[in-house]
Amino acid sequence: MLVRKTILPNGIRVVTEKMPGFHSVSTGIWVNVGSRDEESHERGVTHFVEHMLFKGTATRSALDIAKALDAVGGFANAFTSKENLCIHAKVMETHLNLVVDVLTDIFLNSLFADEEIERERQVVVQEINMIEDSPEDLVHILFQQDFWKDHPLGVPIYGTEESVRALSRSKILDFLGRRFAPEVVLVAAAGNVDHDAFVDLVAPHLETLNHNRRPPKRSAPQVVSHRTVVPKDLEQVHICLGFPACSQSDPRRFACHVLNVVLGNSMSSRLFQEVRENRGLAYAIYSFVNSHEDTGLMGVYAAVAPEDVDETLAVITAEMDSVRRDAITDAELAAAKDYLKGSMYLNAESTDSRMNRLAKNEFVFGRHVPLEEVEEAIDRVTADEVQAWFDEQYRPENTALTLLGPVSKNGAADVALA
Q1: Residue-number span of the structural domain to which 116 is assigned
Q2: Which of 14, 80, 128, 191 could join 47 in a cystine, given CB atoms 3.0 to 4.6 angstroms apart?
Q3: pTM (two decimals)
């Protein structure tokens, strides 16, 4: 088999995919913990940990870590999402020993030195401030804060400036001790990798991890329908409109993603053609799906001139009403399926993408999900299923809207969505 899994004695999973003909290997240490798993007094701590993992261990300084990977032409990075933290690297297969040694070292032995925490705190605060200067990113964050109000999923991944400034070394170490248990840790590798040899490399390091605390279960959020206007001195009004959608494991997720392509996630989509090409209302217009373990949202983003907000919202809601009223056409259905399958297989030619698939499928489904299985599920979607799913999900009472930019709070949030 090209995909294999081994569970170490302490519960850490090791999953690999052999990709014949490749000379590189992408490796990642994943933790099934993200910003939604934080307590109110520690917002942003997972993202802060991600930053700190590269700031030095007992045997390597931050510069040593960077030089070790640069010296072999490798690429290393990390990310935090609402449900995962991952540190990962890509190198030639001849340097796999080195990358495993470096990644396991920073994962297990990072010092979290006080002086480095203070230095990195300023970096993260600047990152937070940078988001304030990016209205497209900011409107999505503001939308989710109200959409999943009073739930950790609605809180920004990086926390707030206030919460980041309140993080101490003891808070960080307490969080790691409570959350980073072996059962939520996974190591994934894809490329020119032999599974047994890879397990032999990883096991001596990670078998030492033995946090006994069982992480608490996640709770699903309640959706809060809202109409929010955030005045800001900008050239455009940034619109984010959304409603509940599929979770990562929802059997109807394929109908959801087909609809997303038809509605606004491609250049030939209904919204792109009507809002941008036919009316010239926006340069940026697209639909999106954000899926999580137990919930999700589907939405539309657009950036328009202040005087075009009403018309743009009217067009968006008209297109949505059209999908609820009439099934998408056979041509749209076929094109959307080809788009999804093409994107999936093109992404699969990357070792990074394959490594990501391994980890996410293991966390969500507990197994490898072959591309062919996904392709068959996409092919089974019918236009009637797409319409039925959308009719169930898209309703005025569970639809939310956020406007960011030069717009008055009086009356603007009551446009459309009636």
Answers
A1: 3-206
A2: 80
A3: 0.95
